[in-house]
From TrEMBL:
Species annotation: Devosia algicola
MF-aspect GO terms: lyase activity
EC number(s) from the headed UniProt entry: 4.1.1.104
Keywords: Carbohydrate metabolism, Lyase, Metal-binding, Zinc
Keyword Metal-binding set for record: yes
Start and end residues of each Class II aldolase/adducin N-terminal domain: 2-181
UniProt record similarity statement: Belongs to the aldolase class II family. AraD/FucA subfamily.
Catalysis performed (reactions): 3-dehydro-4-O-phospho-L-erythronate + H(+) = dihydroxyacetone phosphate + CO2; 3-dehydro-4-O-phospho-D-erythronate + H(+) = dihydroxyacetone phosphate + CO2
Function statement: Catalyzes the decarboxylation of 3-oxo-tetronate 4-phosphate to dihydroxyacetone phosphate (DHAP) and CO(2).
Enzyme type, top EC level: lyase
Protein name per the record: 3-oxo-tetronate 4-phosphate decarboxylase
Organism lineage: Bacteria, Pseudomonadati, Pseudomonadota, Alphaproteobacteria, Hyphomicrobiales
Cited InterPro entries: Aldolase_class_II_sugar_metab (IPR050197), Aldolase_II/adducin_N (IPR001303), Aldolase_II/adducin_N_sf (IPR036409), OtnC (IPR050013)
Amino acid sequence: MKSLCRIGHSLHSRGLTFGSSGNISVRLPEGGWIVTPTNVAMGDLDPSQLSLLDDDGKWIDGPKPTKETFLHAAMYGARRDAGAVVHLHSTHSVAVSVLEDIDPADVLPAITAYYVMKVGALRLIPYFPPGDPALGEAVAGFADKHHALLLANHGPVVAGADLRSAQYAAEELEETAKLFLLLQGHKIRPLTASQAAALKQ
Ligand SMILES: O=C(O)[C@@H](O)C(=O)COP(=O)(O)O
Ligand SMILES: [Zn+2]
């Protein structure tokens, strides 16, 4: 699980999550999944100190897992193709999650083709305190249709076929949130619905 730690270090060193915020999980080919422990900075992850969970998200070995285990379980439960889940407190994504007038069904406009290809329709999940199991239930209701979700007043959670895919989608979400905020007050020309649809074929 060196790659999980390497990616955690990379995200932390580039300021994509701060302090001990954020958590990452990877589904194991033999069943179950590995998840980051609670209260550990992504920059301090150690391959010998990751938590092992079974397919139901039950803690079976290693340090105490993230308090958002149920959030990861909700993503895996709804998305059989998901091989990894990344949750961050990336600044611009969090900022967008607090805006009053965003469309909860599709938070960010299709500013670039890369955003459409990596993220698609970003769903806003109402606010719940971190670690609240009700957050898992809210996420489970949308995770089958959306691999990228934005937790209001909290941050993004993104599933991918593998860890790299989840990482790249979370990074693209953050950059698009930044562009969106930069463009506030300007008239913008996002991709048209047919331009966006052509990218998904
Ligand atoms: O926002 C929170 O508190 C959690 O969602 C989080 O990002 C870090 O929690 P742990 O993974 O339990 O450290
Ligand atoms: Zn969090």
